[in-house]
Structure formats: structure tokens, C-alpha cells
């Protein structure tokens, strides 16, 4: 039965004049109570619910049948309460005001009858005399499976029968029948057909759960939560509500950033929240946050368990591969409940730089589309736009692509100002000697044009030092990749060398150096060289952390413990 069919049956039940009992069953957190209260409020507002009074009672924490009867009296409200406030408020804040009114009446009445000013035992009055007033109304019992062991299920079911048959009440029972055990489960099955007239199973799909939790007019970031929750198969509405609160917090922190950065944060947050709030249904958080290669998702990794195959398929379909530093900052905030705003924004700035380079690369490729995608006579257009693109998008253009562009301009007869273009490209880049000298670690170098090669060689000659460790580390962080030659170069350095570079590097470069040195910690299939680099890096950072209390705190923010 679809959720719309369930809703239709609930509406029919609310409008029916007969005294019926309805059971709405479903797993914990799927939105039974939320859906019931929403429909109840709508039907009361539209004058389609009958009778006109209502009481909601959670059986959780009630110790006796007397507690249940008293709670019925105390929580009874008139239908008018639903016409002036929001649905959830109708069973919370507005109820307290009405209780005071009812309680005052009962106290006064009892005092007159018994000849005393105020009744001393209000609890007993609410249970006995107050229960006499519970009639001709809709009664909802929730959390049946969570009631006290001192409260017998058969007694509650007997009360439901009494309310229905003798008190002219409609009764609704909300529960997770799967959670009932032992004698309670047997009693429920035995009495179900005798007491319940309408038995509904509430089992929304992930898409339906998202539609229940998220309004049509919700903010864009909330709609992203619905989209991602559906992709992950999250049907627990309480989890979705938690994800919505996380998304609101991230939107507040990242307000003003590129929309793609906010979207990535929410995309990752939904996955992390799923793993934290529903660990039995989601991949383990350790599995999600570990580093994986593309080969892992293509099925090339041997000896994976059936669970790992299922998890990897979920992550592949969700378009999630690895957690970057920005994702880890988001995860740490969700897990601890304390969001490090400075750290999140710092990583968002790095991500923005990467997105900016990606945008520039896409714009440069679009210029080349003029060349590749037609046989039009558009040489002037192509040459003009290519020259402009070389200077405008220099930060995203590889040496190989620059060389090819300069060579093409010469071939087309537009090479008169290539020296100016090459020099402009060089001035717009802030790279070390290894970039200009044809670093063997960079497969994108391959400079063939002689003018480009000569200009690069001249630029490289301006550097007096050989390959710099901090530049190699920074390139790994910026590019998200490395060449085996780069790893060998890093590993040639000792823990003392790492210590020295960490102590004497400042500002933004320090962050890149630390992340570069510790980059391989989260890689599940790290080789011996990666492990060696990591061990020496941790040793150097721990040495720094032991120097002072402030340095201990500094290294801890990078995940280093002493």
C-alpha cells in the first residue's frame, strides 16, 4: 500500500461517524506520528474530523493504567486548537493552556461536591473523575512498544476496547509491531482482529519519506537533502529531519560561497549522517572516509566481502569516491556537534580555488571547441579567442596545452606576438623551479614548441635551488595526485628534514606542507613508500607537539595525538 493510499484511509477514518479503531504500524522513525498529526490537523481545520475533541497519549514512561487514564484527561483538546495554531503546537503549547482550564474546573467542582476548597489529591481526581470526561473524542495512543514493563499490554488493549465500545471514542494506535516481544507480541496478535477495525502498514519509500519531511516551498539546500536522502535509500524521517538541521547549519556557515561548495557539503553530510544515525543500514563510517582508488569502484580489488561490494555500489551510485579535507571538516562537525567554522571556511577557500581552476580549464576547452567542432571558416575568431584565453586562464593551462596552443597559432599564421603570450603566461603563474624545468613528476609537461621551451628554461634558470620539498608537497595537495617519482623524492628526506621544514614554513604554505606530508594516512592500500612518509611525518609533528602546550593543540587539529 502506497503512502497516498494510507493517507486516504486515515482521512476516511477521521471523517467516519462510526466509532472505529485504527492501527498504524511501521518501523521506528518512518514518520507515523508526523503523518498522523499532520492529517489530523488538516482535517480538523477543514471541519472533516469527527468527533471534535482529541487526546494524544504517549505510553512511553507511563507506569500504570491509572497513569494512562489521567494522561487521557490531561491531554484532551478541542478541535478549535487546531484551527489557530500549527499542527505540532496543537499538541504541545496550546494543550498546556487548556489543561489549566480543565484542571481548574475539576478542582472547583470536586471542592463543592466534597465540601472542601481545593481537592488535595489532584492526581487521583484526574484519574477517576477526570476519566469520566473522556468520551466522544478521538484518542491516539503512541509508543505502545516502548511502554513500561509494569504496564500490561492486554490492559491497554482492554482500555482501547472500553473507549471504543463504551466511551464512543475513535481510537488510533501507532506502533512498531516488530519491536514487540514475548507475551506482548502474542497478546497483540491475538487481540488485533478483535479490537482493530482498520490495520495499516506505514512503510514509505525513501522518496516518499523525503516528500513527507520536506515541504514543496522549502529552501534549495533542503531540497538537496531530499534528493540525497532518496539516493541513499533513507526512509527514516527522523534521520531526514536531523539532516535538514545539519544542512541549515552548513548553509549558515557557507553563506556567500559558490553554490557548488554548499552542495558538496550537504552531499557529504547526508552520507555521513546516514552512517552515524543509522549504522545498521549504512556503510561503516570508517569505510566511507578511507581513501580509495578508481580501481576499487571498477571492481578490480580482489577479496571484497559481499558487504563491501554492496557498500561500494551504494557509494558509486551516490557519486562519492573519497573524502577531501573539506569533507573531513564537515564530518568532524557532525560527529562532535561543534562546527569549526574557521576550519570549514579555510577548506572551502581551498575548494573554491580548485573549482576556479576547473572553471578556467572548462572555459579554455570551450575555446578549442571552435577549432574541433566545425569546418567553418572561423580562423580569426579562433585565433583571437585563443590568445585571450592563454592570458586569462593561464593558471589552469598545462605546459603541454600551452605548447600546443602556441604551435597552432604559428601554423595558422598568427604567431607574431607569441613571445608576449608566453611571457604573460609565465608572469601569471607562481610555480617553483620543477614546473619550469620540465619536472619528470609531471606527465602534463611535454613542451614541444621551441619558443615555449626556451622561455621555460630561462625561467627555471632564475631559481638557484634544486627541487624543493615544500613545492612537491603543495602540488600533491593542490592536484590531488602524485607520480611515483615524487614519492621517492619525498621519502629520501628524514624525519628530521620534515621537522625542519615544518618549523620554518609559515602561513598558507605551512598548511599545504602538513597536508602534503600526511596525505597518505587515509589511503587503505598505501604502499611501503607511503607508509614510510606517513610514519616520518607523524614523528616530526609529534616532536613539535611535545615542545609546548600550544604546539600540542596545533598538531592535534591535524589529527596528530601524542
From TrEMBL:
<dbReference type="Pfam" id="PF07693">
    <property type="entry name" value="KAP_NTPase"/>
</dbReference>
<dbReference type="InterPro" id="IPR011646">
    <property type="entry name" value="KAP_P-loop"/>
</dbReference>
<protein>
    <recommendedName>
        <fullName>KAP NTPase domain-containing protein</fullName>
    </recommendedName>
</protein>
<feature type="domain" description="KAP NTPase">
    <location>
        <begin position="17"/>
        <end position="214"/>
    </location>
</feature>
<dbReference type="InterPro" id="IPR027417">
    <property type="entry name" value="P-loop_NTPase"/>
</dbReference>
